[in-house]
Specification:
With about 190 residues, the protein is an all-alpha fold. The chain contains six helices and no strands. It comes from Parachaetomium inaequale.
Length: about 190
């Protein structure tokens, strides 16, 4: 089930990315940094799903710890750490791509705030991606940072931020609502 859900959500993300790229290339606007980072993030998501598939098939990953079949603990740990690093990278790149989109739409202090989010989030999540590889031994003494809460806070901040400036754009009310709802999907 874990593999089906992972690949199903990736197929959905692929459809959205494909439509985005088709629309941009079809109207000959070309791709910008946010698009390239989003493509890289999509590649990391595909890699994460491939690793998840290996974990489920080889180690029965997704079951209770007692039911795992860890016949090669070193390989299992390397695969788990690789998956963690790649998953964190995918998450931060998707947020960064959206924040770069917001940079093109903001000015002044809002733009500076978006830059702060991009820089601080990439630094914090970069450390989180390295933690599995550089943690202390024994594992109980490893450096643990409360990044999931910070990452979630940035999701909500980036989801709410478009509401602050979209209302000032000359669009019909229906279009404004559609735009802010679409741009706020990161909160989901």
């Amino acid at each position: 089930m874990l593999v089906s859900v992972s690949w199903g959500l990736t197929a959905l993300a692929s459809a959205f990315l494909g439509l985005r790229l088709y629309c941009k290339l079809n109207i000959r606007r070309g791709l910008w940094w946010d698009d390239w980072i989003l493509i890289a993030a999509w590649c990391t998501i595909v890699a994460t799903n491939a690793i998840t598939t290996v974990l489920v098939n080889d180690f029965k990953y997704g079951r209770h710890d007692w039911d795992l079949e860890i016949y090669d603990p070193v390989r299992f740990i390397i695969v788990i750490y690789s998956r963690a690093t790649i998953t964190i990278t995918a998450a931060v790149w998707t947020k960064t791509a959206f924040a770069l989109t917001l940079l093109r739409l903001t000015t002044g202090m809002t733009k500076a705030f978006v830059w702060f989010i991009i820089i601080s989030m990439n630094i914090a999540m970069g450390f989180a991606a390295m933690v599995p590889w550089i943690q202390c031994k024994p594992l109980a003494k490893g450096w643990i940072m409360d990044l999931p809460a910070y990452s979630a806070a940035m999701d909500f901040t980036l989801a709410i931020l478009p509401w602050t400036f979209i209302w000032n754009i000359l669009l019909r009310s229906k279009e404004k609502i559609g735009v802010v709802v679409a741009m706020s999907m990161g909160a989901v």
